[in-house]
Amino acid sequence: MSIKHGEIIAIGDELISGRVLNTTSCFAADRLFNAGYAIKRITVIGDDPDDINECLLRAVDRSSFVIISGGLGPTSDDITNEVAAKALGRRLVRNEGIMKRLEECRASGRCPADFPMDKLAMLPEAAEELNPSGHAAGYYLRHNGVILFFLPGVPEQLREHLIRRVLPTLEKINGRQPGGLKKTFRIFGRSEIELNMLIAPIDRKYRDIKVGYYPNFPEVFVSLSMLEDRDGKAYFDSMCREVRALLAENITGEDDETLEKNIGRLLIRKKARLAVAESCTGGMMGRQITSVPGSSAWFEMGVVTYANNAKRKLLGVSEGTLAAHGAVSSETAAEMAEGVRKLAGSDYALSITGIAGPGGGSEQKPVGTVFIGMTTPEKTVAERFLFQGRREQIRTISVAAALDWLRRHLSFGSYIPGIKTAA
Description:
By secondary structure, this protein is of the alpha/beta class. The chain has helices at about 15, 25-35, 50-60, 80-85, 95-105, 115-120, 155-175, 190-205, 230-245, 260-270, 285-290, 310-315, 320-325, 330-345, 390-410, and strands at about 5-10, 40-45, 65-70, 90-95, 120-125, 130, 140-145, 145-150, 180-185, 210-215, 220-225, 250-255, 275-280, 300-305, 350-355, 370-375, 380-385, 420. Strands 2-1-3-8-7-6 form a 6-stranded mixed sheet, sandwiched between helices. A 6-stranded mixed sheet has the order 14-13-15-16-17-18, with helices on both faces.
């Protein structure tokens, strides 16, 4: 019996109302793909008997296995067991193992006297518990050759059931499958459509590999995926190499490696340290850097100098520079970078000063005008950038542009930033 393609049904009014984020389905799909199973659909529905009935019957008709999460609890809106039994034409049967554990729970005082034990113990006929020694009543059953897994909706319980029960059960039935192959390239400085056009010739060569483009401001994620076969790893790695070579200067990281993690790795390799000075971003760059565990090994300090007086006192930006060119200028950005590098005694420094809006712009310096400075052991440079968007978007992309500029320099020796304007 071959089980390859499945789907996930997540049940709960809290999911379709937006009160709770459906992270469990994403987790399940990821782990199943890694184990070699393709998930064709993820459906989110509310606690409506007719919707659950229709969705379940359609899933049984088109999939070899189905993961159903949610609606197994003791409250009145937990109706999955009753609806599933009716849809599949099965009786609800009391599970004696569950009932025994619930009775022990009540006797010990851990469960209240009015706890609805019958509701939790009644499962569709022929259901088999996934975790006979636990309290969460996950179970599975076979229906017309399809394996149905019913899992609790509580994230921690679902994850435990999936890893320790569902995947081993599928492996026992289906044998060990070659794992799914995935690679994500994090791209800065290229739009989604640009990337699509650049990668298209490579995509046509590797038709068994799926390519996805996912904007994740201020980056775009390019995802490659395929279910592995005997020769799949070499085939998959070949496409990854071609994409990596094509987009080398725009790749900020791969998979879980963020831009700031990448910079940390590069600085550690050079045995160098970084300092930053910020104005309009108000500490966002320092916060992003220090979100990396172990960043103290390469990050020296960050200074927020919002007012001109702070730029003068802390960073040594000259009165003449501020008077002649203003706080938002390449001259000020350069002196900010040099000042924080001197203050910190670091090898590299970055600075940001600009107009994030919504007000404060002019014809010469409209909202979105940002100057970024970078100083290295060799020289200091500063560039003008023009970004579009709301205040937080301008601040966010300013930080990304500064960090990416440093990444490009550390990786390729470039003093030319990879982006100057962005919509």
